[in-house]
Amino acid sequence: MADRQKKLEAADKHFNVGKSLSWDKDDFESAKIELRKALQIRESIYGMFHIDTSKCYYEIGRAYYAEKKYNESLVMYRKALRIRVALFGKFHTETKNVDHCLRLTVQAKGLYNAKDINEAMDAIYDVLNFEIKGDTFRKAGRNAEAQVEYLKAAAVEEFHFGRDGEILGELSRKAGIKAPPPPGGR
Fold first, then answer.
1. Chain centroid, CA 74 distance in Å
2. Which residue from 68, 87, 102, 174 has the fewest beta carbons nearer than 10 Å?
3. Is the pLDDT of residue 186 over 50?
4. 3-state secondary structure of 28
5. Contact by Cβ (8 Å): 133, 141
6. Closest Cα partner for 165 from 152, 148, 183, 177?
7. Burial class (CB in 10 A: 0-12, 13-18, 19+), 97
8. Fold of domain 1-110
């Protein structure tokens, strides 16, 4: 118990240092290192679906956004969103904060009109819902149905966000399919 508490205190320290480096000093590389340390500890103790784990993904996403690394930011914000939707639902304030950051990131990637931004956000939520259904089926031992949901998620992800990327890779692994080859790498 004492060891667990020490690890959580270390995670909190890494998180607070990382957040300070990002928000106060604009030292995003060092911030991401500290935040990833916090994330690693928190995931090992709490697991994926905990608000403190989500906060790490959120802050890492924010650091990437500040560096104008929008693809990486999108991945981190989407992981934070996945956790918050599972914990709180789509309409909770914690979830809406991440939703707002995702919208800003999608806009920064070049989608400027409301219709395109909403379409991208709908795709993000569709992927998320298919993945959650797949996870639910998998936990129930209904692997064929899980695979169908993961394939749906992967299809939406590929259509809207391209053939490469961490999210598509994770969905492909869950579905038990090979990751698609890189563009031009056939």
1. 7
2. 68
3. no
4. helix
5. no
6. 183
7. middle
8. 1.25.40
CA atoms within 13 A on the CB side of 125: 15
Using CA atoms of 37, 26, 82, 152 in order, give the dihedral in degrees to the nearest 10: -110
Q: Which stretch of DSSP H or E encloses residue 92?
A: none
Tokens read off for 30: 């060092």
Residue reference for tokens 């995931």: 43
Q: Distance (Å, rounded) from C-alpha 153 to C-alpha 111?
A: 22
Closest CA to 18 of 62, 48, 50, 54: 62
Find out whether 32 and 18 touch, Cβ atoms under 8 Å: yes
Which pLDDT belongs to residue 131? 93
Q: What is the pLDDT of residues 122-177, one digit of tens each?
A: 999 999 999 999 999 999 999 999 999 999 999 999 888 888 788 888 888 888 86
